[in-house]
Every structure is written in structure tokens, then in C-alpha cells.
Amino acid sequence: MKKDHIQQLKIPASAKKRSKSTVSIIYGGIVLLLAVAVWFAWPREGDDQRILDTSNPDETASAGDVSSSAPNVKTPESTPSTKRESPPVRAFGGSLLTVSGYIVNRERVELSPRFMGVVRDIRVKKGDSVTKDQVVAVLDDVEYQAQLKQAQGALEVAQVQVKQAQLDVDRARRLVTESVEMKATLEDAELRLAASQADVRRLEGQVELVQTYLDWTIIRSPINGVVLEKLVDPNELVTPQSFGGTRGPSTALISLGDPEDLQVEIELNESDLSKIYLNQACRISPEAYLDRVYQGYVVEIAPEANRQKGTLQIKVQIENPDKYLTPELSAKVDFLAEEGD
Questions:
Q1: How many domains does the chain fold into?
Q2: CA–CA separation, 163 vs 161, rounded Å?
Q3: Of 68, 83, 178, 338, which has the fewest beta carbons less than 10 angstroms from its beta carbon?
Q4: Which residues constitute the domain of residue 182?
Q5: Pairwise CA distance, residues 14 & 23, whole Å
Q6: Is the dihedral of CA 207, 213, 219, 220 positive or negative?
Q7: Dihedral, 289, 294, 298, 302 alpha carbons, nearest 10
Q8: Domain holding 277: CATH number?
Q9: pTM assigned to the model
Q10: Would you write out the chain's pLDDT as a tens digit for each of its 341 residues?
């Protein structure tokens, strides 16, 4: 019985042979997988480009900033974003040096009085925009108005004297012609006429001088700009030279600056001076708005260094500044290399 059971458990010889069709299917699948792998692994044109993920606008913007500072890196066209668009960045080589500085007005215009007087009116306040020839302050002009009236009255008297002298000349010339008076009488009359005419010219100059003083009591803006600082108030006595205050000796009533003419002032370490040259292209990013980038160039290299600090002052002119750039705020400046360096 046991032998019969053992015989039933044995596998027939025909069942031990593997089907040829099954083996063919297995080998065919392996060949297909190898073909697919070779197709994907084969190099194609454009595989060396770096592709940024544009699914997240914030990540795209940050990646764009990094790529703009690295030379010879290709990036795809940027996708629409809700962030403010920065001015276009010119194509240059990589950044040679990054330094922080302060945004300043290229020129700070301080309006001063030409003579001692009392401020009657200040017509602007700090932060106001002004236009060229706009009246910003008025000094008291009562004294000069009185002087003008005196000069005008004296001029009128002199003009009358000229007329009288002219009549005397005409009368003397007629009498000399009729041989009633001597020629010396005519000459004396002509001299009095010349003196009266000279007196008229002198008084005309006096009137113009007082009128000039009156014009100086009206202080106008010489530029289109913004009021940076208001240094006096109405009823204060001002002079062409004054002392005191946090700014030290000053003669200014109002300080003005042009918001469309800005620079970045940098104290550059002397060890980095070899990397800087005039008209070198720069990229400026204000610390308050790091997502905004502006173009600029080196416009000034100080002729003298600071011995104590071991620094040299560099000024970078900002091209096309806008309302986001505020004087005295800090900014980061990248000094760019020329392509091929």
C-alpha cells in the first residue's frame, strides 16, 4: 500500500518539461525592457539645459535671481507672476564682488538766504515735491519795500533835474547864437545837464539794487525735486552764516534732492580695489526690497583713501530709479565682470 501511495506522488516525466511558448514570452519581455531602457538613455539635444520647476511662482522667482547672478546658465522663459516686475538685467558675466552701501542723492541742494532777515513764510514741508522756480520760502521785505520807494522818489527828482538842465542848455544855446550870452554860459549848462543825467543813471542802479534785494526775499527751488529737510520755521531770524544744530555750521533754510538722480555710496576695502574700475556695470538690490534689481555703473572712485579705516569711497550711479529707492537706506551692490572674463 505504501508503495502505491509513493507512486501516486511522483511527477510524470511529461509534466517535468517546460513549455517552449512560456520560455519565448519571458525572453521577449526581457528584450522589450532592454529596448525601452536604451531609448530613454540615448542622449538628445537640449538635455544639458537646466529646467526650473514653475509650479510654484515663489520658487521660480528665487531660482531666477540665482540664475541671473551665475554666468552662462540657461533658464526657460519666466511664467506670469503676481510679484512686482524688476527692471531688466543686462547680460554680463558673474559677480566679482558684493558690497553693501547706502543710497544717497547725487546732489543735495541747500537753499540759503543772501542776507540777514526774518522768515515770513515757509510754503513747503519735509517730503513735499517741488518744481523748478516754485516759491518755497519768503523773507520779510518791509525794509526793502521802503528803500525801494526812497530810491524811486530820488530817481524821479533826478529825472526832473535832467529836464530842467536840458531847458537851460537850449536857452543858453539860443542866447549864445544871438550873441546875448557868452559861450561859457552854454558850456556850464551842458555840464549841469551831463551831471543830472549821470545822477539819473546812479539812481536807476539804486532802484535795481533794491529790487534785487526784494527778489532775494522770495526763495525759489532751483530744481525739480523733494524737500529732504526743513531747517527753519516762520518768524525765525536767519543769516548767511549760522551755527548750531546737529548738522553743525549751516546757512540753509531748506534742503532739496532729486529723487531721479540717486547713487549708492560704498566704503570699499582696499584689498578689493583691484576688482573695481570706472563705468563698471553693477547690479543694485535695496535691502528693503531684495526682489527688486536695478542696473548701475561705477561713476566715481575717490582720489584719496581713509587711512584709519583702510577704505576707499566708491559711488555707483543708479539707472532709472523709482519710488522704492529711498535715500539713506542700505543697498547691496554686485560689481559685475565683463563677458569673457
A1: 3
A2: 5
A3: 178
A4: 141-208
A5: 17
A6: positive
A7: -20
A8: 2.40.30.170
A9: 0.56
A10: 555 656 655 656 555 555 556 667 777 778 777 777 777 666 665 554 443 343 444 443 333 343 333 334 333 333 333 333 433 444 556 788 999 999 999 888 888 888 888 999 999 998 898 999 999 999 999 999 999 999 999 999 999 999 999 998 888 888 877 776 677 888 888 899 999 999 999 999 999 999 999 999 999 999 888 998 888 888 888 887 644 444 555 578 888 988 889 999 999 999 999 899 999 999 999 999 988 999 999 999 999 998 888 999 999 999 999 888 988 899 999 999 876 55
Residue in the structure block whose three cell numbers are 507672476 = 81
| Domain contains 4 | no
DSSP letters, 80-93, are: P-SSPPPPPPP---
With beta carbons less than 8 A apart as the criterion, state whether 220 and 135 touch.
Answer: yes
Q: Specify whether 151 is located in the same domain as 201.
A: yes
Residue partners of 321: CB distance under 8 A and separation at least 6: 259, 260, 261, 262, 294
Same domain, yes or no, for 246 and 266? no
**Beta carbons within 10 angstroms of residue 266's beta carbon:** 22
- Rounded Cα–Cα distance for residues 242 and 50 (Å): 64
State the maximum Cα–Cα separation within the chain, in Å, rounded to a whole number.
191
